[in-house]
């Protein structure tokens, strides 16, 4: 079981929850979330995601990841304009954040 920011993912049963509510993901959506959550806090390049999730070394479409990411964000409650779970690092890839970026800084 992997848990980050209240999102739980069970790779064995291929089930996902947000809090106590189960979130139904397609096979590719699950694989995308798993690839990111397994490396939470690290940037995962688009090339790595295409290889690990789509099992390809070539780009079938430059929008494949973006389309699936949009569906995943909606299902997990992550606002694409102000994401707190999955952030896009321009020119580098995607990162599943280990802490809510919207939370106020207690040291501020």
From TrEMBL:
Residues in the DNA-binding region annotation: 1-98
InterPro entries in UniProt: OmpR/PhoB-type_DNA-bd, Sig_transdc_resp-reg_C-effctor, WalR-like, WH-like_DNA-bd_sf
This protein's record includes keyword Phosphoprotein: yes
Pfam families: Trans_reg_C
Keywords, alphabetical: DNA-binding, Phosphoprotein, Two-component regulatory system
Domain OmpR/PhoB-type residue range list: 1-98
Keyword Magnesium annotated: no
Top-rank lineage group of the source organism: Bacteria
Protein name: Winged helix-turn-helix domain-containing protein
Organism in which the protein naturally occurs: Nocardioides mangrovi
Origin organism lineage: Bacteria, Bacillati, Actinomycetota, Actinomycetes, Propionibacteriales
